[in-house]
């Protein structure tokens, strides 16, 4: 049984201009102790997929279709109150901007201890001891000093470590990390990624890791799904996607990452990922606004692409 199973998820915004299908038929699963990466450009629906898991929704937002199972329970049918109980206990989230998760008016000590006392029901002595353990786990130098500081007194890398410590406070089964290192410079980013991998090993946490950066995903993920226009266009083990990408959109992401030039046709055409030169596959049924469920074509073990096989005339 998978720890997280998302089936045919549709998450919509009702706006004055009509319905925005931010997530439009997404299916994936995440196994215990594994990291699943979600990649795709800005606006492809990565964050809204993650927000749907705990229904961290705006007023005009809803799950229009689909189910989400976590640890054997259908959490997509849970109330906000029930989900609140899961959040911070079994599922933790970290975001790009630590300042959105840390409260500016409280010290690091207060925030960590509060989380521990609330969720883990620890008394204050045990909570303080655990706070130090967590700060040590995320390799914060000089914890006696840091613990007394307010979020604005911390550097970007340091506040991200504190946020990870907060996320780990309750030993979650699932950590959802949405662009957690995007705001950091490359050296700090590398340290944080290494730290997350170590913590994953230590606590056997499953991670849903969202990024637009293939370099980051290559260091973090076991498997990856590629999103475009609210849909998954390709999914594969990480090595396979680098070796053997099939979807024209995935190929373009790869090319941009590897900085190799793909054959560019006219600018307009180059942006139409669905009119590919692929001999075998037709990608055109699954344009981002289409409601059609893709026929998943299997390329390899656990490697699927959203396409239909082209009908070749018999000669
Ligand atoms: N507040 C909103 N109101 C209406 N549509 C929204 C809102 N927030 C996001 N969307 C829609 O959801 C899509 C996916 O957004 P998001 O999941 O945040 O993208 P990503 O995280 O991949 O950059 C956006 O392209 C946009 O169309
Ligand atoms: Mg996002």
TrEMBL record:
Keywords: ATP-binding, Cell inner membrane, Cell membrane, Membrane, Nucleotide-binding, Translocase, Transport
GO CC list: plasma membrane
Protein location: Cell membrane
Cross-referenced Gene3D superfamilies: P-loop containing nucleotide triphosphate hydrolases
First-listed, main subcellular location of the protein, grouped into a coarse class: membrane
InterPro entries referenced in this protein's UniProt entry, alphabetically: AAA+_ATPase, ABC_Ni/Peptide_Import, ABC_transporter-like_ATP-bd, ABC_transporter-like_CS, Oligopep_ABC_C, P-loop_NTPase
A GO term for molecular function: ATP hydrolysis activity
Residues in coiled coil: none
Membrane topology designation: Peripheral membrane protein
Transmembrane segments: none
GO biological process assignments: peptide transport
Domain named ABC transporter: residues: 4-254
Cross-referenced PANTHER family: ATPASE AAA-TYPE CORE DOMAIN-CONTAINING PROTEIN (PTHR43297:SF14), OLIGOPEPTIDE TRANSPORT ATP-BINDING PROTEIN APPD (PTHR43297)
Record family assignment: Belongs to the ABC transporter superfamily.
Name of the protein in question: Peptide/nickel transport system ATP-binding protein
Organism of provenance: Atopostipes suicloacalis DSM 15692
């Amino acid at each position: 049984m998978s720890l997280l199973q998302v089936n045919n998820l549709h998450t919509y915004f009702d706006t004055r201009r009509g319905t925005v299908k931010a997530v439009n038929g997404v299916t994936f699963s995440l196994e215990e102790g594994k990291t699943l990466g979600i990649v795709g450009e800005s606006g492809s629906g990565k964050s809204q997929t993650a927000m749907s898991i705990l229904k961290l929704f705006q007023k005009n937002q809803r799950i229009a279709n689909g189910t989400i199972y976590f640890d054997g329970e259908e959490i997509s049918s849970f109330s906000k109150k029930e989900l609140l109980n899961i959040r911070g206990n079994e599922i933790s989230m970290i975001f790009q901007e630590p300042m959105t998760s840390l409260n500016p008016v409280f010290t690091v000590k207060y925030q960590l201890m509060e989380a521990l006392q609330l969720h883990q029901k620890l008394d204050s002595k045990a909570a303080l001891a655990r706070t130090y353990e967590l700060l040590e786990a995320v390799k914060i130098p000089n914890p006696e000093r840091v613990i007394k500081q307010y979020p604005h007194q911390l550097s970007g890398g340091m506040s991200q470590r504190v946020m990870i410590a907060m996320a780990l406070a309750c030993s979650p089964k699932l950590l959802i990390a949405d662009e957690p290192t995007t705001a950091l410079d490359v050296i700090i980013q590398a340290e944080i990624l290494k730290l997350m991998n170590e913590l994953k090993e230590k606590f056997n946490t499953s991670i849903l890791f969202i990024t637009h950066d293939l370099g980051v995903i290559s260091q973090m993920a076991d498997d990856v799904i590629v999103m475009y226009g609210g849909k998954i266009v390709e999914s594969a083990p990480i090595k396979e996607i680098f070796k053997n990408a099939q979807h024209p959109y995935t190929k373009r992401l790869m090319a941009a990452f590897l900085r190799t030039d793909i054959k560019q046709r006219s600018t307009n055409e180059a942006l139409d990922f669905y009119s590919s030169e692929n001999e075998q596959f037709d990608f055109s049924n699954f344009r981002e606004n289409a409601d059609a469920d893709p026929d998943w074509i299997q390329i390899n073990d656990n490697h699927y692409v959203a396409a239909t096989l082209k009908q070749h005339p018999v000669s």
